[in-house]
Amino acid sequence: MPNLAKPAPTRLSKLKILAILPFLAVLGGCNAVVLSPAGDVASQQRDLILISTALMLVIIVPVMALTILFAWRYRQSNTNARYEPDWDHSTQLELVIWAAPLLIIICLGALTWMGTHILDPYRPIARVDEGRPVAAGTEPLQVQVVALDWKWLFIYPQYGIATVNALAAPVDRPINFQITASSVMNSFYVPALAGQIYAMPGMETKLHAVINKAGDYEGFSANYSGAGFSGMRFRFLGLDEAGFEQWIAKAKAGGGSLDRSLYLQLERPSENEPAHTYAAVAPDLYHAALNMCVEAGKMCMDEMMRIDAKGGLGMAGINTVLPLTYDKHARRGTVLGPGLTYVASLCTPADPMASRSALAPAPAALPDPAGLLGAGLPRPGLTRAPSASAAADAPASPTSPL
């Protein structure tokens, strides 16, 4: 009876298998979400990538093919190849060489110009998806995003809730994102929803998008921002209207209130922060985070800009610029270095230092302001009226402000 057993694999076949394994491991890490998104904006961006790639391949593929053809045809061993050492010009070949790339560049330029304007992240979307415009009277979902170290804070001003590392939106409803950061630049990116956009301290960027399919999608920071960057991820849920309302109700039932004092604790660096929600949020928290004035009594950036727009405070106001500079190192808990300093707001409470002490460690004892001279502005509540004897002894020349 013949032996039907299969022969054992040879050493060569084992080496082939081992050589293929690394390539299989690389393919196992592939994620095609960019080429198969669930949002209309991301789908249009995908189409832009594919069309641009196809147009460039119109030039690249023939060039690569001709390179191989010429190398083979005019190899040294091919004695049948035509030898023309004096050839130096061909009008027909020049037309092909210059006309084809020129047409491709014109097509790419037109495509890029249209895509840049149609897919402008600051431009409100006009359609839910292809063939379905946004219905008249539809109220977009407003989401305020703050990139913290190293977590994401999402505020829903229409519902009065806030979440950390958890984001949800109803299907086929436009979403308007307002995005900023607390200390360093990050990049807000949900590949299934739309392209990335940067989050920067003291600045606001915007993103308009829509999700068309219910599902659980990944979001993360696409810009390195420090030690906890790898864990700066969140889940984005696409829900139907009923599911979204249930998600909001669950967040409200979870309790907790995010006020300014709690925000100052939340913005401290932490890694791999678990998702959680707040049933209430201070209505002006995002404005304060954007304008770097969460601490009580601190002058907001927009307040200072309004002063500057009306002519500024003159030479005496020059020294107010440096204290307003945002010290990301101090806010991130750096042990060494100066403490937090800032310009007091012109609209502070009657006792700004007492308001500040409720949110921060008590400051060092202040010196007697009567003996201080300089070019800075007098801080509210810290100046003293000169006594009658001092006023009588003062020279006639103008005195320097405190």
UniProtKB/TrEMBL annotation:
Gene3D superfamilies: 1.10.287.90, Cupredoxins - blue copper proteins. It comes from the Bacteria. PANTHER family: CYTOCHROME BO(3) UBIQUINOL OXIDASE SUBUNIT 2, CYTOCHROME C OXIDASE, SUBUNIT II. Residues 370-402 are annotated as: Disordered. SUPFAM superfamilies: Cupredoxins, Cytochrome c oxidase subunit II-like, transmembrane region. It is a multi-pass membrane protein. This is Ubiquinol oxidase polypeptide II. The lineage of its organism: Bacteria, Pseudomonadati, Pseudomonadota, Alphaproteobacteria, Hyphomicrobiales. Residues 138-250 form the Cytochrome oxidase subunit II copper A binding domain. NCBIfam families: CyoA. Belongs to the cytochrome c oxidase subunit 2 family. It is found in: Cell membrane. Keywords: Cell membrane, Electron transport, Lipoprotein, Membrane, Oxidoreductase, Palmitate, Respiratory chain, Signal, Transmembrane, Transmembrane helix, Transport. One of its GO terms (molecular function) is oxidoreductase activity. The chain crosses the membrane at residues 48-72, 93-114. Pfam families: COX2 (PF00116), COX_ARM (PF06481). CDD domains: CuRO_UO_II. Residues 26-123 form the Cytochrome oxidase subunit II transmembrane region profile domain.
